[in-house]
Automatic annotation (TrEMBL):
Listed name of the protein: RGS18 protein
GO terms under biological process: negative regulation of signal transduction
Alphabetical keyword list: Signal transduction inhibitor
Gene name as annotated: Rgs18
SMART domains documented for this protein: RGS (SM00315)
Residue numbers spanned by region Disordered: 202-232
RGS domain sequence ranges: 84-200
Taxonomic classification: Eukaryota, Metazoa, Chordata, Craniata, Vertebrata
Pfam families (UniProt xref): RGS
Length: 232
């Protein structure tokens, strides 16, 4: 019997076309759909990025109405801060002002550690002490901690040993050391700083000067960098 495909060659062509018809959507349509889905996901991510506040970091420049108002501190209140370091830290406005000053000196980890210790001592139960103690130790005290404070070897060793069974006095020695450091070193400079002297005279603290960033750099390129004198 003769092969029907030889007698009717159009059957072979039709079969080839059908075969190609069913394979073609698998090869071409699926990647097309995947590409459209990928493009849609990129657009969604871009939309979310544009909604983030940090993306509009420079939008407020030149618009005084959008700038946060400086806290109002009376000269009488500022005078009390100069009487003792304790009085400065005992008032929220004083604590905030001192914290902002330490940030300009890149030493805010000292006051953050002191505040964490104050909160730690106010823990209502022994059950709260262990997780708080671990967080404070890993953040401020252990070697290469992200906000490691400057402690002598003996104080650091005593604090490390007490981490086995932390109590309310676990960070007492370390907190006292950091307190004395701030009182003897940072506090006198704060009292001589322009923002504090301005408060004594009833003026709002001056804002830090704004710097223009080159479009060829990103925000991360400028973190911790000082501009070259040649650029001023």
């Amino acid at each position: 019997m003769e092969n029907p495909l030889l007698l009717f060659p159009q059957l072979n062509i039709s079969a080839s076309k059908d075969k190609a018809y069913y394979k073609q959507p698998v090869m071409k349509e699926e990647p097309h759909k995947a590409g459209k889905a990928g493009a849609k996901q990129k657009r969604n991510r871009l939309s979310l990025l544009l909604q983030k506040p940090e993306f509009h970091e420079g939008d407020h420049l030149g618009k005084p109405g959008n700038l946060p108002k400086a806290a109002s501190v009376s000269p009488e209140e500022a005078v009390k801060w100069g009487e003792s370091f304790d009085k400065l830290l005992s008032e929220k406005a004083g604590l905030d002002a001192f914290t902002k000053f330490l940030k300009t000196e890149f030493s805010e980890e000292n006051i953050e550690f002191w505040i964490a210790c104050e909160d730690y001592k106010k823990s209502k139960s022994a059950h709260e002490l262990l997780p708080k103690a671990k967080t404070i130790f890993e953040t401020f005290i252990q070697k290469d901690a992200p906000k490691e404070v400057n402690l002598d070897f003996h104080t650091k060793e005593v604090t490390s040993q007490s981490m086995g069974q932390p109590g309310r006095s676990t960070f007492e020695a370390a907190q006292s050391t950091v307190y004395r450091l701030m009182e003897q070193d940072s506090y006198p400079r704060f009292l001589r700083s322009a923002p504090y002297l301005g408060m004594l005279q009833g003026r709002a603290p001056p804002r830090a000067p704004l710097r223009r960033r080159s479009r060829s750099f990103t925000v991360s390129d400028f973190k911790g960098a000082r501009p070259s004198p040649a650029l001023w």
